[in-house]
Amino acid sequence: MNEQIKKLVLAMQGTANPERAVSMKAYMKGQFSYLGQSSPVRKELQKDFFSSWKKDRSIVPMDLAKAIWNNPEREYCYVAMDWMKSTSIWKESGSIEQIEAWILDDSWWDTVDFLASTCVGAYFLKFPAERDQWIEKWNNSSNFWLNRTALIFQLKYKEKVDTDLLFALIDTHKTQKEFFIRKAIGWALRELSKTQPELVREYLQRTELSGLSVREASKYLPKEY
Questions:
Q1: CATH label, 93-225, candidates 3.30.1360.120, 1.25.10.90, 3.40.710.10, 3.40.50.2300
Q2: Is the pTM of this model over 0.90?
Q3: Are 198 and 165 in contact (CB under 8 A)?
Q4: Distance CA 24, CA 91 (A)
Q5: Helix axes of 74-87 and 39-55: crossing angle, nearest 10 degrees
Q6: What is the pLDDT of residues 80-95, one digit of tens each?
C-alpha cells in the first residue's frame, strides 16, 4: 500500500503547478493547500493508477481511499473520491462510518457534496434499514455539514425521493441562517422539481423559506407555477 501511495505522490508532484495552486487556495478561502492541478490533468494521471489498482487483489479499496485522502494537498481528496466512485465503495456494509468521518474532515462543499449525494445516497439505497438512524443523528447535529448531508443525500434519487422525509428535514432547518443550509434546501427542492414540480410548488406556497432557498427551488419550475 505504501508503495502505491508513493508512486501516486511522485506522479502528482510531477504535474504540480505552483501558480495555479495559489489561485486554487484563494478560491477556497485559503483553507487548503493545493498542488495546482486542473481536473483534466488529475483525471488523466489517475486513470492508469486506477486500472492497475483494480487488478491488484491485495488492495482493499476502502484502505486505499483512506491512504490517498490523508495526503496534505486537497487534490488527493479528489483522487480518493474518484477512486470511491470507481470502486463503488459504498457497497460495503458499515462503510457509512468512514464516509461520515470524511464528511467531518476539513469539511467544505467540494468534498461534502460528493460524499453526501453519491456515497451516502447510494449507501442508503443499498442498506435502507440503516437510513433513519443516521439521518436522525445528522439532522439533530450541531454540525451544519452533517445537516447539509441529510438534506442533500437524495439529490440523485429522482422518483425515489422520500418527500415526507425531505420536507420534514427542510422544516427542521428552514430558519437556519447558514448559507450552505439555505443553499442545500433550495438545491434539494430544485432537483425534486424536475420530477414532481407540482409537489414543490405546493410546498413553497405553504412554507416560508429564505429568499436564497426559494430562488434555488424555483429555478426549473414551469413558468405557470
A1: 1.25.10.90
A2: yes
A3: no
A4: 32
A5: 50
A6: 999 999 999 999 999 9
